[in-house]
Write a structure and sequence with these properties.
With about 350 residues, the chain is an alpha/beta fold. It contains eight helices and 14 strands. Helix 6 crosses helix 7.
Length: about 350
């Protein structure tokens, strides 16, 4: 963040997300474009479907997705899809597959005349203004080509005249969203105003995102077993399958879940180090319908202690039953006129608290 306005935008969007009860929390989306790698990797729809539907491919366990979350009280997400492959199937046939086609076979993909539109399809969706889905999505997954200036398939950080593309200034959503985009270099934070920086610090847009600082990687064979997609699947599984809601913890859990395959897929190491969180690592994704905690303080301790002037030691045991990994903060208090001192006065662990006269 470069100035006070960006700090204000970043914090405000998080506060809006943490406190809203808007129906948009039940909306999600997956997006993909033409990739051009041939075979099953010609379009990115097959990768995105692993996130939408969940999958048991390749990883030795099932990874849960938007539509098959296993955590208690998971939201029943209404998932909207935007896929260039679907556009193609509705408009063109046969397709030129670079892995099988010969000279003159099929029609090649043309960025200048084909695909869904950022102006007509994506921006209305993100702004909550489509004819059928009048709500901004809460969660998004994107798989595409990208660059420091380009993300979310067809959005640019600055004005553009490219066909079917548009720019981030057209976002005016009041409900901020989270998105995971495993495209190349969208999160290249070592250049000025990369896509990830702009969309999280502008007035509208995202409250957080996970992006690559370098290249997103496809599979080395004709499969969907790509290093980038594996990391993405493990992230959403951490949230929707294991109930790890803090962004930072879920992101790290996803990385550590991939370590066992480093010997067989060397490029996983590359992805491990280049995929980064743009956002507050302590922020919790609100993917369940459980009521959020509203109590600011609870008096659950001893109301009175009688003592003879010698130090009295307490050993409290406090547990957060809703999430044992999220510690409770608690403090001690007394009549200041009595000159009583508590050491420590506040903690987030299970301290031994000694009471003495000042």
């Amino acid at each position: 963040m470069e100035n006070a306005s960006e700090v204000v935008n970043f914090v405000r969007k998080m506060l809006v997300y943490e406190t809203t009860d808007d129906a948009y929390l039940n909306a999600a989306g997956t997006m993909g474009s033409w990739l051009g790698f041939g075979g099953i990797q010609e379009f990115t729809k097959p990768f995105a479907e692993l996130i939408r539907l969940g999958s048991s491919l390749y990883l030795g366990h099932h990874t849960h997705g938007f539509e098959d979350a296993s955590i208690p009280n998971a939201r029943d997400f209404n998932v909207v899809t935007l896929y260039d492959e679907d556009w193609w199937n509705d408009n063109e046939t046969p397709y030129y597959d670079s892995s099988t086609a010969g000279p003159g076979d099929g029609v090649r993909w043309d960025w200048n005349s084909m695909g869904w539109s950022a102006t007509d399809d994506l921006l209305p969706f993100l702004n909550g203004e489509t004819k059928t889905e009048n709500t901004t999505p809460h969660l998004l997954y994107i798989s595409d080509h990208g660059s420091p200036e380009w993300g979310m398939v067809k959005l640019k950080t600055t004005p553009t005249t490219y066909y079917n593309c548009d720019d981030l200034s057209k976002l005016h959503n009041t409900n901020p969203f989270f998105f995971y985009d495993d495209s190349c270099q969208v999160g290249k934070f070592d250049v000025n105003n990369c896509f990830g920086e702009v969309i999280t610090t502008m007035e509208h847009g995202a409250f957080a995102c996970i992006l690559n600082s370098r290249d997103g990687l496809g599979a080395e064979d004709d499969s969907l077993d790509s290093p980038s997609t594996q990391m993405t699947r493990e992230f959403f599984h951490s949230v929707l399958g294991e109930g790890i809601f803090e962004l930072g913890r879920a992101h790290q859990e996803a990385k550590e879940s991939c370590i066992w395959r480093l010997g067989s897929i060397a490029w996983l190491r590359y992805v491990y180090y280049e995929v980064n969180l743009f956002g507050d690592p302590e922020l919790r994704l609100r993917v369940t319908t459980d009521a959020d905690p509203t109590a600011l303080s609870v008096d659950a301790g001893i109301s009175m202690i009688t003592w003879s002037g010698e130090p009295v030691q307490l050993d409290p045991n406090v547990v957060n039953n809703s999430d044992p990994f999220s510690p409770l903060t608690y403090a001690w208090s007394a009549d200041p006129n009595d000159g009583v001192v508590f050491n420590p006065n506040a903690n987030v662990e299970d301290p031994n608290v000694t009471i003495t006269k000042a």
